[in-house]
Design goal:
Elements (H helix, E strand, L loop, with lengths): L9 H11 L3 H8 L13 E2 L6 E2 L3 E3 L4 H14 L3 E4 L14 E4 L6 E5 L4 E4 L5 H10 L2 E2 L11 H7 L18 E7 L5 E5 L6 H7 L8 E8 L1 E2 L2 E10 H6 L1 H5 L4 E7 L4 E10 L9 H19 L4 H13 L4 E6 H5 L7 E9 L3 H17 L10 E6 L14 E9 L9 H13 L3 E2 L9 H7 L3 H11 L8 H7 L7 H6 L12
Bound molecules: flavin-adenine dinucleotide (FAD).
The site of flavin-adenine dinucleotide has 34 residues, from strand 4, helix 5 and strand 11.
Length: 507
């Protein structure tokens, strides 16, 4: 028997070898209580944006680590790939599979709180919304979060979900707040990994933003800070002024994020800083709900038939939001914004210094479309956010100070809207300026482009292979991007008529 590495959990090794001695029939029997019936709606995985749907061969809903190990043993035994499926907020086919799926929703417990050191350990299926509540009750908070908190902890960690800000001690990449992870590898053995040299730091840096290809994460320990409030000041400025003073604006507060409304030539800038001022609401129900949700949604609906209306909708939305506003609230409530309609979205991470030129090119292209009576009439706005350079191997901010630029096309009343041509133009401009795609969003990069832009690409693939020689965690997205093959039943996945998903296929 091989020796046990310091970061391996010996009980998990014993359990894994017990499972190896169990018959396949017995594995199915053990898993029966957590197998989703094929007739259940939960046997089909649909992403939140209603762009991708898949029917895995079997879906399991484990609550314990032993059950996860049993699913892994069954998948290996049957030669079927396995993916974790969480809240489905990835706007791509990242989580989709025609193999087995572990739904993580029931792995959602708070496991440990060390208030004095701000260390909190949770299971991966906990949503950020639930995590914020737990943390607040211990006077703690995550240093930064993105636009929403509906995602699961596992989902945000493996995609390096980001907020915004070039703040030295509050990194906008949520994965940077992770202190350690516990992972079940495809061998069934459970390991702890972290930046500690004794705890396989290579595996740690490959797993953060590793898209779930190194193993199934069962525990995440975050380093939190003391609960804090943010004061947000938001105002509009002309596009040219914004681009001319770009880096100063990007660093003008702890967390800066911006929205470019091309139809009015203005940028809305939001500056957020930590504060001890009393709570203060920004805006009213009439503005925040009636106008910017109900009226805008109806106008977007009309825009499906007469795209010119989209221009007026964008102008209207920008006009509604033109005021200088100030608000104070708990950090996560200020970080989050209302993302109310399912949407197609894509986003690129540009080197910060390339961004003004990229935005100018975006504006030039946009104005050309607007001048053409048959040109594209996009929804609004382009979102602009910031991240400090980091060391997570596949983080789009790896090694470079980053500006994220994103685009969305909303689906009013969940109805389909055109987006492919717009996104193709957008991608062309972003790629020309050195953009790296957001991993969770649909993008055109394959192994060659990725190898060129990620200095740690080969090392990442080596570590992935070390911990998953057979390709247990490979799905169509991973095959397309990483150029790796999955364990045996991939052929079945490829050929299965039920699982022919393409971008935007279902809506
Ligand atoms: C409205 C909206 C707003 C968004 N805002 C932002 C934003 O501000 N910033 C940003 O960067 N992104 C943003 N995103 C993207 C989102 O944060 C990511 O797609 C995130 O991964 C979604 O998490 P999820 O829990 O829905 O995971 P899913 O989409 O279900 O899965 C994502 C990936 O996580 C893997 N995974 C999940 N759990 C585990 C586990 N336990 N072990 C191993 N792998 C696991 C899955 O296999 C899959 O590869 C947004 C998306 C939407 C729809």
């Amino acid at each position: 028997m091989s020796s046990i590495a310091p970061n391996e959990h010996s009980a998990s090794r014993a359990h894994a070898s017990d499972l190896k001695a169990t018959t396949t029939q017995n594995l199915y029997a053990l898993l029966a209580p957590i197998t989703v019936p094929p007739t259940s709606p939960r046997a089909i995985f649909t992403n939140w944006g209603l762009a991708f749907r898949c029917r895995p061969l079997s879906v399991f809903e484990p609550e314990t680590e032993n059950q996860c190990r049993t699913v892994i043993e069954l998948a290996r035994r049957e030669g079927v790939t396995l993916r974790a499926g969480a809240v489905g907020h990835s706007p791509s086919d990242l989580a989709c599979t025609g193999g087995f799926m572990i739904r993580t929703d029931k792995m959602n417990k708070l496991l440990h709180v060390d208030e004095a050191n701000g260390l909190v350990t949770v299971q991966p299926g906990m949503t950020l919304n639930a995590l914020h509540e737990h943390l607040a009750s211990h006077d703690l908070a995550l240093p930064s979060v993105g636009s929403i908190s509906d995602q699961s902890v596992g989902g945000v960690v493996v995609t390096s979900t980001h907020g915004s800000g070039l703040h030295p001690t509050a990194p906008s990449n949520i994965s940077l707040s992770v202190r350690s992870l516990i992972i079940i590898l495809s061998s069934g053995v459970q390991v702890t990994c972290s930046r500690d040299p004794k705890e396989d730091p290579d595996l740690f840096l490959a797993t953060l933003c590793g898209l779930g290809t190194t193993g199934f994460i069962t525990q995440v320990t975050f380093k939190c800070e003391k609960r804090f409030k943010l004061k947000e000041i938001a105002f509009n400025m002309p596009f040219d002024n914004f681009v001319d003073d770009f880096e100063n604006i990007a660093t003008s507060a702890e967390h800066v994020r911006c929205w470019y409304f091309g139809q009015r030539g203005v940028v809305r800038v939001s500056q957020c800083n930590r504060t001890s001022e009393p709570y203060k609401a920004a805006g009213s129900w009439f503005r925040n709900v009636f106008l910017t949700y109900h009226v805008v949604q109806f106008m977007l609906y009309i825009g499906r038939f007469w795209p010119q209306v989209n221009t007026w909708t964008a102008r209207f939305a920008s006009w509604v939001m033109k005021e200088h506003t100030e608000g104070v609230d708990d950090s996560w409530k200020i970080f989050n914004v209302d993302c109310r309609y399912p949407q197609h979205t894509t986003e690129f991470a540009l080197p910060l210094s390339n961004t003004p030129a990229a935005l100018r090119d975006l504006r030039t292209w946009f104005e050309k479309e607007m001048a053409d009576p048959n040109g594209i009439r996009p929804h609004f706005p382009f979102e602009v956010r910031f991240s400090e350079a980091d060391d997570v191997w596949l983080s789009p901010a790896n090694g470079r100070r980053t500006c994220w630029v994103g685009v969305a096309q909303y689906k009013p009343y969940s109805l389909p809207v055109p987006f492919q041509t717009l996104f193709a133009h957008f991608e062309r401009i972003m790629i020309a300026h050195g953009g790296r795609p957001h991993w969770a969003k649909f993008h055109p990069f394959g192994p060659n482009e990725l190898k060129e832009t990620y200095p740690m690409w080969d090392k990442f693939l080596d570590v992935r292979k070390r911990v998953d020689e057979e390709g247990l965690w490979v799905n169509e997205y991973i095959r397309r991007c990483f150029g790796v093959e999955g364990i045996g039943a991939e052929g079945a996945e490829k050929g299965d008529e039920r699982n022919k998903w393409r971008y935007g296929e279902i809506m």
